[in-house]
Every structure is written in structure tokens, then in C-alpha cells.
Specification:
alpha/beta; binds adenosine-5'-diphosphate; ABC transporter transmembrane region fold; elongated; 23 helices; Rossmann fold; disordered N terminus; six-stranded mixed sheet
């Protein structure tokens, strides 16, 4: 796992989910914009609960009045009323469904926007420390799960509660003695639910963890780089075995989970038939005594069914609530991570043209107690080229990442034209810097779209000029669809050198005063090498350039060379001067480059 994990710790599965007041309040906040439709849902649920009482009551009327009176008219009215109730209930159900989706989908929508915006502001370190796929899961399935929480937990709970209250009231109003008899079994349903719920919750969590494990195996072995690793080290069998194992375990857990509570449910079903039997027994006795009508008994039993079913459904509530709270907590964990690199109060626009970039005693650590940089001081003079050289892992990339504040220096300061870079707004600072990385990322889209990403307003001529200057125009023109050729995962594949030249053209279009470049280490053929050198020359003209240099030609042409070793600057100067000194530069030059004199190309350092 990447560094900085301690800082972005969020998937601690061991903590117990508590439905605290604060959490509830926070969840509730998402509903407040939709209080009107929510109120309507409550109204509809109440109405439905009351309407649901009518059919049994109408049946009572049929048995006790229409039939004994042999009144066809009354019978027809009662049957029609019953039919009307059913139709109205159905319509209300449709309306309520609409309202449910309206509210839940809007909450999902709001949360997704909020999450996207939030994640955009997270620092680079966050993305290098989260598990692969984690962000996508959080953004998609977790947030979408909220919709289920609303529909199956909140609405279900409210609906069951209303049905319970109205039915209970109706029963007690009809005959309190019978009602008491009917509800006597209810505690039998409720008492064991917590224990059952806990058991099911534990199983559900275990299953979830197994699935996460399984996803990890899938992501690690069936992704491009993971696949390569697996194939090249012929680890297919081991990987398959480990996949099969977690798969079997997940299956077992799922079976256990779905069986958990079956016995309990069976017992519940038995209890639910005890109630009506008691009613028939005692109600029958009252009927024989002449105190009760047949219709009342039938209605009572029907209403009792209406009472038991929400009680039974509510036995799942414990698990549902815990699951929902956990879901919200997972999402809120992300929201709670502070974007550590933000604009300071009173920060102003950066103007870097013609300004020196100065590092003053800069220190930085990805992980506490493991400094990646310490005491780094140097000046990259305006309009000059500074080359960073040194062994792999020395800290060159880290130094360059601090300038656009992709990471924040933990000590010392970095200034541009004498002003601390933290006093500039992030946007303006970054607009002054062009970054050419080793592996250029081109998104799925045409070459033109990729180029215009840097400056959407550039004209077709601007684009072509930039590409000419980056020595890539002729190549692009030679493609079947020229600038409209699709690149990226689903488009044509470009070589590293071609991509880097496109990336140079992209930065040329943006035309910032400061250029930071990580030269490609991959060996290129002489022609590509030549093109890249020329492209770089064009890019760096009149700019302040900081290049992580791997090629001798770049190093020799640099105005200033910084030799980075173990997180600090070991030597600095120009090529001849450094070569004359004893030290790591000469070692690097002689060992890695291997040629003593004369040659101007080749790789002096390697990653
Ligand atoms: P260079 O560019 O000179 O090869 P880097 O600046 O990439 O070196 O790395 C300097 C040190 O910081 C190395 O020890 C490397 O392992 C560590 N490092 C680089 N990037 C990260 C990161 N994202 N998280 C943690 N450590 C890192």
C-alpha cells in the first residue's frame, strides 16, 4: 500500500457502526431540500394505511348486514366500495413510488456531485494511497446504495409503522379484549430480533469482506499491468487457486447468510397462526354467547394479518439500519478527508515570467519519519535551464512536484520572484507551469481534443503550429484521420516518444513561463531522439526550465546542473565543472554513461 495511508485511513472495517445522533442529523441534512415531496410521501403512506383498513371492514359489513338482510343493493355498494378502495390504493402506490424515486435519485445526484467536487480537490497523495478501484466504488455503488436505503429502510419503516398504528387502533376500537388476545403473541416476534439481527449483520459483513478480497484479486490480476505480471511470472495457477478459495468461502458465507434466521422465521410463522386461533376460540365463544357477530371475527382475523406482517418485516430493521448507517459512514469518511492543499486566505495571482524559482532549505516527507527531501536549496534562474540528475529514488521527481504544489513542502519555502508559492492561488500557480511527464496520459478522444485540453480556445492554426514546434505535425498528418484520429485506450496506440511530443505540443499551446519536464528514459531510436531534442529546445526557449535529465545532451546544454542524492543536493554547477570535481556526478557519468568523452547522447541515469 502506498504511503500517506495513515493520513487517508478510511476503510477500517473493524469499527462498529453506531447510529449516533450526529450521523442521523447528517443524513437528515440531505433530505432537507426535498422536505416537500417527503411530506407528501408521509401523507400518502398515512392515507394508504387508513385505506388498507377498509376492505376487512367492508367484509364485516357484507357478512353482518348485506347477507343477513338479503340486500342485493347494499351488497353491490359494499363490493364496489371495496373495489374502489383497491384501485385508489394502487394509484396511491404508484404516486408514492414516483415520489420515492424522485427523492432518492435526487439525493444520489446531489451526493455524486458533491463527491466529485470533493475528490477533485484531494491532493495527489490521496490518489496514490487509495486502493485501485476504491474511488469508483465509492462514487458509484456506495452512493447508489443510498437509494436503496431510502426505499427499503426509511420508507418501509414509515409505512410499516403507520399500518401498525392504524390497524392496532382499529382492533382495539372494535373489541379491546379480542385485540389484547391478538397482540399477546407480538412480543414473541420482537424479543429475539436483536440477537438475530446481530448474527445476520456479522455474516453480512464477513460476506462483504470476502467480496472485497475477491475484487482485489480480480483487480490485481485482470488489469493490464497485473495481467502482465501474472503471465510473466507464470503465476496463473496460484492466482486461480487463491481466487477459487475466496470464491468458495464467499459462496459458503452467502448460503449461511441466506439461511440465517430461517428457523426464526419459521417460528414466527407459527406464532402468527396462533393469534387467529386464539381469536376463533375466544371470538367463537363470544359468538355462541351472542356477544359477537361472525363478521367481526372474520374482520378481526384479517386485520390481525395486517398487524403481523409489518411486525415481521420490522424484525429486519435492525440489520437494515446498521447496513444503511455503515453505507453512509463509508461515504462520509470520504467527505471528512480534508483537501490538505488549498488556497490560503488572501492569496493572489502568480506571475512567473522572468522570475527566479528559489528553494530555501526545503524538506518533505511522504511518510512521517522518512524524509524524501531535506535541506534542499537552489535557484532556478529565470529563463535558464536547470537539469536535475541523480540516481533513481534520489528525490528528483519529488522536487519537481513541489513547485506546482502537487505536494506541499513540509519545511523551508519555495518562492517565485521572492513570493512564497503558498501565497499564490493554486489555479494561477499551476497556470504558470507546464508539466511534461514521462508517461503522457492521453484520454480517449481525438488528438485535437487532447491538445485542446490545455487551451480550449486555441485555433486550428495554433494547434498545428504547436505540433510543428513539437516535431509531431508531420506524424499526425500522416495518420489516416490526421488530427481527428482517436487515441487513448480505445484509439490507436502511440509510441512513448510520439506521446511525449504530443505532450510537449500540449504544453506549447498552454505556453506557460515555467516548464517542468521529466525526460523519457526509454531508449529511443536516433530519429525520435533527435525529434524530441528539437521539440524540447522549442519548448524551453525563453522559459524557466527544470528538467529531470536522463540524456547527456540535455545535461550538457543545461545552464545549471543539480545533482540530487538521498533527498538533498549533493553537487551543483555546469557539466565541465562537475566533471572536474570528485563526486557522484563523475561516478554517474563514468559508470552509467560509460563513454568518457565526445558523445552527446545516451542515458546517464536510469530509473
Ligand atoms: P527520483 O525521481 O529521483 O527517482 P522520487 O522523487 O520519485 O525519486 O522519490 C524519492 C523518494 O520518495 C523515493 O524513496 C521514493 O520511494 C519515495 N516516493 C516517491 N513517490 C512517493 C509516493 N507517492 N509515496 C511515497 N513515497 C514516495
Amino acid at each position: 500500500m502506498g504511503p500517506g495511508h495513515a493520513k487517508f485511513k478510511f476503510d477500517d472495517d473493524s469499527r462498529s457502526t453506531q447510529l449516533s445522533k450526529a450521523l442521523l442529523l447528517r443524513i437528515f441534512n440531505y433530505f432537507t431540500p426535498y422536505w416537500k415531496p417527503a411530506l407528501l410521501v408521509v401523507g400518502v403512506l398515512c392515507l394508504s394505511a387508513v385505506l388498507g383498513l377498509l376492505p376487512p371492514i367492508l367484509i364485516q359489513q357484507i357478512i353482518d348486514r348485506a347477507l343477513p338482510e338479503r340486500s342485493m343493493r347494499l351488497l353491490a355498494i359494499l363490493v364496489l366500495a371495496s373495489l374502489a378502495t383497491t384501485v385508489i390504493s394502487g394509484l396511491l402506490g404508484v404516486w408514492q413510488n414516483y415520489l420515492n424515486s424522485f427523492i432518492s435519485q435526487h439525493i444520489v445526484h446531489d451526493m455524486k456531485n458533491q463527491m466529485y467536487r470533493h475528490l477533485q480537490r484531494m491532493p495527489l497523495q490521496f490518489f496514490s494511497s487509495v486502493r485501485q478501484g476504491e474511488v469508483i466504488t465509492r462514487m458509484t455503488s456506495d452512493i447508489s446504495g443510498i437509494q436503496g436505503v431510502f426505499n427499503s429502510t426509511i420508507v418501509n419503516f414509515a409505512s410499516n409503522l403507520f399500518v401498525l398504528l392504524t390497524t392496532g387502533a382499529a382492533l382495539f376500537l372494535m373489541n379491546w379484549k379480542l385485540a389484547l388476545l391478538g397482540v399477546i403473541v407480538v412480543p414473541l416476534f420482537i424479543l429475539p430480533t436483536r440477537k438475530m439481527g446481530n448474527m445476520r449483520w456479522k455474516l453480512a459483513k464477513q460476506t462483504q469482506e470476502k467480496f472485497a478480497e475477491q475484487n482485489q484479486v480480480i483487480q490485481e490480476t485482470l488489469s493490464l499491468s497485473g495481467y502482465l505480471l501474472m503471465k510473466l511470472f507464470t503465476r496463473e495457477e496460484q492466482e486461480y487457486r487463491s481466487f477459487k478459495r475466496t470464491n468458495a468461502e464467499a459462496t459458503q458465507l452467502q448460503i449461511r447468510e441466506s439461511m440465517a434466521g430461517r428457523w426464526f422465521m419459521m417460528a414466527l410463522t407459527t406464532f402468527t397462526s396462533i393469534g387467529p386461533m386464539l381469536i376463533y376460540l375466544y371470538g367463537g365463544y363470544l359468538f355462541i354467547q351472542g356477544e359477537l357477530t361472525v363478521g367481526t371475527i372474520v374482520t378481526f382475523v384479517a386485520l390481525l394479518g395486517r398487524l403481523y406482517s409489518p411486525v415481521m418485516q420490522m424484525t429486519n430493521l435492525y440489520v437494515d439500519i446498521k447496513r444503511s448507517a455503515a453505507l453512509f459512514e463509508r461515504i462520509f469518511d470520504y467527505f471528512d478527508m480534508e483537501p490538505v492543499i488549498v488556497d490560503q486566505a488572501g492569496s493572489g495571482p502568480a506571475l512567473a515570467a522572468g522570475k527566479d524559482i528559489v528553494f530555501q532549505n526545503v524538506g518533505f516527507a511522504y511518510q512521517p519519519d522518512k524524509p524524501a527531501l531535506h535541506g534542499v536549496s537552489f535557484t532556478a534562474a529565470a529563463g535558464t535551464l536547470t537539469a536535475l540528475v541523480g540516481p533513481s529514488g534520489a528525490g528528483k521527481t519529488t522536487i519537481t512536484n513541489l513547485i506546482p504544489r502537487l505536494y506541499e513542502a513540509s519545511s523551508g519555502r519555495i518562492t517565485i520572484g521572492g513570493t512564497d508559492i503558498r501565497e499564490f492561488t493554486l489555479d494561477s500557480l499551476r497556470s504558470q507551469i507546464g508539466l511534461v511527464t514521462q508517461d503522457t496520459y492521453l484520454f480517449n478522444g481525438t488528438i485535437r481534443e487532447n491538445l485542446l485540453y490545455a487551451s480550449p480556445d486555441a485555433t486550428a492554426d495554433d494547434v498545428e503550429d504547436a505540433c510543428r514546434a513539437a516535431y509531431i505535425h508531420d506524424f499526425i498528418e500522416g495518420l489516416p484521420e490526421g488530427y481527428d484520429t482517436v487515441v487513448g485506450n480505445r484509439g490507436i496506440k502511440l509510441s512513448g516518444g510520439e506521446k511525449q511530443r504530443i505532450s510537449i505540443a500540449r504544453v506549447l499551446l498552454k505556453n506557460p513561463p515555467v516548464i517542468i519536464m521529466d525526460e523519457a528514459t526509454s531508449s529511443l531510436d536516433t530519429l525520435s531522439e533527435h525529434y524530441i531534442q528539437e521539440a524540447m529546445r522549442g519548448l524551453l526557449r525563453n522559459k524557466t526550465g527544470i528538467v529531470i535529465a536522463h540524456r547527456l545532451s540535455t545535461i550538457i546544454s543545461a545552464d545549471h546542473i543539480l545533482v540530487v542524492q538521498n533527498g538533498s543536493i549533493a553537487q551543483e554547477g555546469v557539466h565541465e565543472q562537475l566533471l572536474a570535481e570528485e563526486g557522484i556526478y563523475r561516478d554517474l557519468y563514468e559508470k552509467q554513461f560509460g563513454v568518457k568523452d565526445g558523445a552527446t547522447t545516451g542515458i546517464i541515469t536510469s530509473k
